[in-house]
Amino acid sequence: MKLKSLSVIGLEKNTGKTESLRYIVKLIKRENPRRVLCLTSIGLDGESVDQVTLTPKPEIIIHEGDLFATSEVHYKEKKFLSDVLWVSDSRTALGRVVLSRALENGKVMLSGPSTLYGIRELMKVAKTCGMEFFLLDGALSRRSIGSPFLCEGVVLATGAALSLNPSEIVKKTLHVIGLMKLPVDPMAEYFEKLSEGIWLAKDSVFEKLPVGTVLNNTALVLDRLEKGCKLYLSGSLTESFVRRLIDRGLQKDVTLVVKDYTKVFLSPEITELFFNSGGKLRVLRSPRLIAVTFNPFSPTGYSLDSVEILNILRKFLDIPVIDVMEGENLG
Fold first, then answer.
1. Residue 89: which pLDDT band, with cuts at 50, 70 and 90?
2. Measured between alpha carbons, how far is 235 from 258 in angstroms, rounded to an integer?
3. Which one of 90, 136, 247, 274 is most buried, by most CB atoms within 10 A?
4. Is the dihedral angle over the CA atoms 188, 194, 197, 198 positive or is it negative?
5. Do residues 135 and 290 make contact, with C-beta atoms less than 8 angstroms apart?
6. 3-state secondary structure of 89
7. What is the pTM of this model?
8. Helix (H) or strand (E) holding 171
9. Phi and psi angles of residue 294, each rounded to the nearest 5 degrees, phi first
10. 65 & 127 share domain
């Protein structure tokens, strides 16, 4: 694996993010046992029992020589030797974040930085401490860790926890992957230089609108749209805004631009309606999706036929689609 940083994001809690993390570590260590990893989480992970469903969860194993970052609370609970390398100035709900090097193999509960700024700061510090590969496990509904502005690659975890209906799992999974593959706008380098807010661009002229988001400002924004213009939103693209855009019949005349797919909060249905009616949506950067993992087990005790779902997903995707309970190479 030639990447230097990777984030694992789940479509739902218990879709196998932690198992995917363990699996990726195993593959990296098999390829190069001496490669120095740094593991952390933007939420609480690595617990032996899920805090929501009370079902057993796989623990995070840290290998001797690797780095790991967790909160003060969970650092004190670990039962293996390690050297403290750095302690953050900022605090999470569980205290400051402690970056350490494992002096022996051990299990730990990861509860790292709670913000993207905190993750970026940690990545910089870990690199100075000899880190060669950064592996980030996300929290429930924190798709922002999959942003292409953060890690070089993304692994998407899906599974039976998303739905017990195979068709629904496939639909929701392909919807998110479709957003990940949104085309980069030709003017992306110019939009990246703009300040936060909402901007109109036409004929190389950029105008900042007097509102920060489309929330509660939909009418004002729609009234300013002209045929052939681009509307750049540094914040979220919401379902209600797109519905109003379609209701006015403006979707064919305007190109919507957002930072990346994590800013798009549209259902599969409204997304399909938008594109089928001539809508255009672009991003500043798109992530490198390197694999999709599938967990056939639901926290409610049900299990699905992984072969059926994997085969369907593989028909639509040109990347590895893996049952993490069975395993195969990420490529």
1. very high
2. 7
3. 136
4. negative
5. no
6. strand
7. 0.87
8. helix 166-180
9. -130, 130
10. yes
